[in-house]
Specification:
It contains 4 helices and 5 strands; from the N terminus they run βββαααββα. By secondary structure, it is α+β, with helices and mostly antiparallel strands. Strand 4 and strand 5 form a beta hairpin.
Length: 155
């Protein structure tokens, strides 16, 4: 739906597109103020897609700590940023693989705490690598879902 609105601090009226949904959890109201002349549905979807990309940037900076570029040399910071990008790609690939197994979608920091930042033991054998985790590990179901998604046999 589209309306025009003028806040007290604005010089003139502006176009406002709003979306309202009634859901089990309650009402969900969203508003977009824009100067674009697109149809209301297209305008809302444009800004929703833009918000999604901003969430990716937030994941990269906040959850992957990609804003920690405190070296004095440019090349060192460039390399650190490259490592952060590789870590982001890996974590996002794991998240997408888990979504394919019908696991719930998680933020990258939740995934990192459940899969990576845990205590365990890695044993390298002649023909395989074994990962030993505590039997009550909270991320155990995620590890089983990932290993199944990659076709790893459980012993």
């Amino acid at each position: 739906m589209r309306i025009s609105y003028k806040a007290a601090s604005w010089e003139h009226e502006r176009r406002v597109v709003y979306k309202a949904e009634a859901m089990e959890q309650g009402t969900n109201r969203r508003f977009v103020v824009s100067t674009r002349l697109d149809a209301p549905k297209e305008l809302y979807e444009f800004y929703a897609k833009r918000g999604e990309s901003e969430n990716w940037i937030k994941d990269f900076k906040l959850h992957m700590k990609a804003d920690r570029l405190s070296c004095h040399r440019f090349v060192a910071n460039q390399f650190r940023l490259l490592l952060h990008a590789c870590a982001y790609w890996l974590m996002d690939a794991l998240r997408r693989k888990l979504i394919d197994t019908r696991s719930r979608r998680m933020q990258l920091d939740t995934l990192r705490l459940s899969l990576i930042k845990i205590g365990g033991r890695v044993r390298e054998l002649f023909t395989k690598i074994r990962l030993h985790l505590a039997s009550g590990h909270p991320g155990q179901d995620l590890w089983h879902a990932l290993s199944g998604a990659f076709g790893v046999v459980h012993e």
